[in-house]
Each structure stands twice: as structure tokens, then as C-alpha cells.
Amino acid sequence: MTTSTTETTTETSSTGKASREKTSPAAAPDPLPSPATKRGLRHKAAAGSTTVGSGGPGRNEVRLCGRLAAQAQERELPSGDRIVTLRVVVARAQAGNRRRQPVEGPKRATVDTIDVVCWTAATRRTALRLRADEVVEVEGALRRRFFGGPSGRQSRYEVEASVLRRASGGALAGT
């Protein structure tokens, strides 16, 4: 977000003197709002509000498009909640600014494997219909989940899916 300060000069016809007025810093809007922000703007505009968000400086939005590594797995947590987990494999962009020189020989595919968890009924249903190697799109938020393991307390980062769909234009699941 950028800020700017503007100065304006106005002349009054009765005195002929110029007066200067300094306005307070104005925040420029984000140049490209995300789809979630656009939806939020539409909902707030419909409700008659012009402010966006809770006023905090942060944003936790994740958008992925990649190949499903294996079929999704449904399981029940000790709390009784049912979730569906899946892994999305995303190819990394070619990094031209690495310090290390590439190793000669056959090139390895460089990918990221990202765990995705589906909590809502709609995203769980969609995830269970997907098959391995299908290309999917995921929208959601990055979460850090804590759980007890054999060696004590552990944590894991995963994407909590709010929207899940086939990349080929399949039906939208979630909000």
C-alpha cells in the first residue's frame, strides 16, 4: 500500500491572495484485489458499507493450481470432526537468481508438495470425487495445526480449502 500527500492552491477573488491547503496522507487501494476481496467488496457494497476487512494489515490467502498426488483420504479426528486431506503437487517456477550453480547432468523436476485439508461438507464431497493426477485449483488459507505425536507435541502447515475445483472448469465447491 502506498501513501501520498497532495497540495492544492486556491485563489479567492475578493482578496486576490493564494492560500495553500495540505491534505492528509491518502492510502492508495491495492492495485489488484483478489477474488475473495472482490467478493467481500460486493457483499459490503450490498450492505451499504465502504470499508474492507477488519482494519488489520495482514492477509492470509492461498491460491494453488496443481496435480493431485493421490486420491483424497477421509478420516475422523479424536475430536469427532471429519476431514478430508489431499496433496497437491505444484511445479516451481524456474529460479534464475540462485547463488548455487546448477549441477550438470539430467535436470530434476522441482516441485512443491502441499498438504490441503477440507473441513466443510462441500469441499469434502468435492475432494472425495477427485482422482489421482487430476489438475485441481484450491483457494483457502495457510494454517498451522498442532497435534500430539509419539515424540511429543508436533505441528504442521497445511492449506485449509474454502474452494476446491477441477482445473478443467468443474463445479465450484465451497463459499
From TrEMBL:
UniProt keyword DNA-binding present: yes
Organism: Terrabacter lapilli
Annotated region (Disordered), positions in chain: 1-60
Low complexity biased stretches: 1-15
Top-rank taxon: Bacteria
Pfam families in the record: SSB
Name of the featured protein: Single-stranded DNA-binding protein
Keyword DNA-binding: yes
Record keywords: DNA-binding
InterPro entries for this protein: NA-bd_OB-fold (IPR012340), Primosome_PriB/ssb (IPR000424)
